Amino acid sequence: MHIPSPSWSRLLIPAIFLSPWASAVPCSSCKATPSTLQNSTILPYLDPSLCIQDRLDDLLSRMTLEEKAGQLFIKQIPAGVNGTIDNTTFVLDGTRNLTTAPLITEKLLSHFNVNNARSAKQMAEWHNAIQELALQTRLKIPVTIASDPRHAFADTVGSSIASGQFSKFPESLGIAALRDPALAELYAAIVREEYLAVGIRSALQPQIDLVTEPRMARSGQTFGEDANLTASMVVALIKGFQGPELGLTSVTTVTKHFPGAGPARNGNDSHFATGKDNTYFGDFLDYHLIPFKAAIAAGGRQIMPSYARPIGTKYPEVAFGFNKPVITGLLREELGFDGIVVSDWGLITDAEIMGVVEPARAWGVENTTELERAKMVLDAGVDQFGGEIRTELLVRLVNEGQIPESRLDVSVRKLLEEKFMLGLFDNRFVNPEAAERVVGNPYFARIGNETQRRAYTLLTNQADILPLRPKDGVKFYAQGFNASYLEARNLTVVDSPSEADFCFLRLSTPWEARGSPFRQRYHEGRLDFNETEKAAHSALFKACPTIVDILLDRPAVIPEIAEEAAALFGNYGASVDAFLDVVFNKDGWKPEGKLPFDMPRSMRAVEAQVADVPFDTEDPLFEFGHGLSYNRADSCGWKG
Ligand SMILES: *[C@@H]1O[C@H](CO)[C@@H](O)[C@H](O)[C@H]1NC(C)=O
Ligand SMILES: *[C@@H]1O[C@H](CO)[C@@H](O)[C@H](O)[C@H]1NC(C)=O
Ligand SMILES: *[C@@H]1O[C@H](CO)[C@@H](O)[C@H](O)[C@H]1NC(C)=O
Ligand SMILES: *[C@@H]1O[C@H](CO)[C@@H](O)[C@H](O)[C@H]1NC(C)=O
Ligand SMILES: *[C@@H]1O[C@H](CO)[C@@H](O)[C@H](O)[C@H]1NC(C)=O
Ligand SMILES: *[C@@H]1O[C@H](CO)[C@@H](O)[C@H](O)[C@H]1NC(C)=O
Ligand SMILES: *[C@@H]1O[C@H](CO)[C@@H](O)[C@H](O)[C@H]1NC(C)=O
Ligand SMILES: *[C@@H]1O[C@H](CO)[C@@H](O)[C@H](O)[C@H]1NC(C)=O
Ligand SMILES: *[C@@H]1O[C@H](CO)[C@@H](O)[C@H](O)[C@H]1NC(C)=O
Ligand SMILES: *[C@@H]1O[C@H](CO)[C@@H](O)[C@H](O)[C@H]1NC(C)=O
Ligand SMILES: *[C@@H]1O[C@H](CO)[C@@H](O)[C@H](O)[C@H]1NC(C)=O
């Protein structure tokens, strides 16, 4: 095998915006063999002229058990200030508090994810400092850095993160709303370019869970309710991130959460014991597999099992990461996936998160020891433990003869092969000045900004009130955003709805704050507004014609707003300026989005739905695919 040349779908992007990885020299020859290099001063696995399989064999033959164990973990670390390594202690290893450095130099980990945001230059400098540290280890194995999605305007910490300097798109629901695989591929190609520039080589996406239970807490980062639409989106994303083959300019993808985390009982999130069950009472497990089959066929490199456990299937009622019939039986043997399976974060160890100790997500096997959990996860067929650093457990399993060392070799080989394919052994540093130039450049930022506008989904437009045409003297009232955005457009703003000719109301889909601070990051519970809120909205609607804009991170239940508001938009993460550009049809911007899910009419209908069954909400308020256009003849190309 040789590394493919870096020439594929980066052609979508003007050359001046490509990160410097484009100039990396591919390993094309594969002519040398280890024996001809016996006398060379360079170790065979560090020699770029050798074939990957030979380099892998060489490296594996040199590794100690501890070095192998280190490869089987990926842990979140913070990017330090000013491009330096973070020196605060943040993770407990038995009785010791550790900082970043010993994870690399003592625990011998070489996979990390980073979720905080620094400037592009500082991210790149930090990445280089991490690679320098890895060069100090015996084998000099380069580090692979992963990230949760960080390109959405709306942020949910823990599943998508602060975008900082990166270009800002809507959440993936908004990409789905545009129904355009070419745009989805361009989105991924832009994210890839910005990642490459700062040294992020693994994307903890696409998230292809189907929103068959509308309360599902992580709906915002999915592609909605429909399996075929999601399948077409995941194929486009994998192509955009990885290219036709994984290579020097690829970002590897982690498709999640197998076999689909949509059927969450009551929508409760599976990070927490109250959300541990996926229920399949409609017998629709196969429907949730459709996008995973597409991801596998498209060459998606990594798959992450869901935290949840299945209820109502032929499979054991234990969390998917522990579930051998699901991981080895269904995913590997039936669906033919031979890539890397990385567990979701924290299956073994209880850990303090935001000041509260959260239990390990060993759903259905809570009473096992940590050692037993580690063995079960390996036996299930998982290659890497997410969010853990418990290398000593694997060493002990092998030393006690509970797991053969060859079992570790199977996973280590896949993980290291990926590093070779990404070119990390040969080209591990990035250029911080180039990162500053590439990340959030005007071209990428513009495509992100435009996508925010295009994804707007117009749900109602009474009497064709939209687009608005502000004439002199027209007065506006704003609620839910800063009226200075209107004043910046030289519009007249008043302090009360009764004085206004038009009112704006920006909302988010309701949710219930429950439990620990970490749990409150995941929006669970009811999807409707309470009586107090409804009364306040209604008073506004009665006082003046109101244009409502609601962030649909889940399908809101808002029949009263659809009835009473003058117009109603759904967005999936968009700036105030994007909203106003669409309202006023500025520069021709208009809503092009189509709903990626059904919007239920009532909470009673939500509760009557079967969690795993798509499109079973009774008499939906708006159906999947709904989305109006501007009808008025004057609504195109107006320079507002
Ligand atoms: C290695 O070097 C020795 C001494 O210089 C030489 O005799 C031998 O042929 C070399 N082996 C290879 C494989 O080049
Ligand atoms: C980061 O750099 C800025 C500017 O050079 C400096 O003022 C600040 O003290 C630095 N912070 C740390 C923690 O080094
Ligand atoms: C962390 O420690 C290293 C040396 O161990 C030092 O170079 C670096 O500046 C420190 N970072 C901060 C933010 O203090
Ligand atoms: C680890 O550090 C945290 C603060 O970062 C502290 O609260 C905790 O007591 C420390 N634990 C140990 C065992 O040192
Ligand atoms: C989904 O795609 C499959 C395979 O292409 C096709 O048979 C099926 O009719 C599609 N379903 C819908 C609802 O479009
Ligand atoms: C979901 O969470 C709510 C609130 O904590 C709880 O009342 C409910 O029982 C949970 N559902 C399940 C199935 O555990
Ligand atoms: C774990 O043990 C507790 C009692 O110690 C028991 O109530 C519970 O049912 C057990 N859970 C499982 C999954 O076996
Ligand atoms: C994108 O939108 C942001 C506001 O959200 C604005 O500050 C920025 O200038 C825009 N960039 C481009 C290139 O249009
Ligand atoms: C609204 O924006 C203005 C101008 O940017 C700013 O001065 C003011 O503090 C903002 N108000 C709020 C409530 O954020
Ligand atoms: C607002 O009015 C000022 C003064 O007439 C003008 O300079 C500015 O360009 C206008 N801004 C917009 C967005 O029209
Ligand atoms: C309604 O929801 C708001 C939050 O938007 C909350 O502050 C208020 O207490 C709730 N009222 C009732 C009656 O539940």
Automatic annotation (TrEMBL):
SUPFAM superfamilies: (Trans)glycosidases, Beta-D-glucan exohydrolase, C-terminal domain. It catalyses: Hydrolysis of terminal, non-reducing beta-D-glucosyl residues with release of beta-D-glucose. It comes from the Eukaryota. The keyword Signal applies. Residues 64-416 form the Glycoside hydrolase family 3 N-terminal domain. The keyword Signal applies. GO terms for molecular function: beta-glucosidase activity. Keywords: Glycoprotein, Glycosidase, Hydrolase, Signal. One of its GO terms (biological process) is glucan catabolic process. Residues 1-24 form the signal peptide. It holds the Pfam family Glyco_hydro_3. Its EC number is 3.2.1.21. Belongs to the glycosyl hydrolase 3 family. This is beta-glucosidase. It comes from Aureobasidium melanogenum (strain CBS 110374).
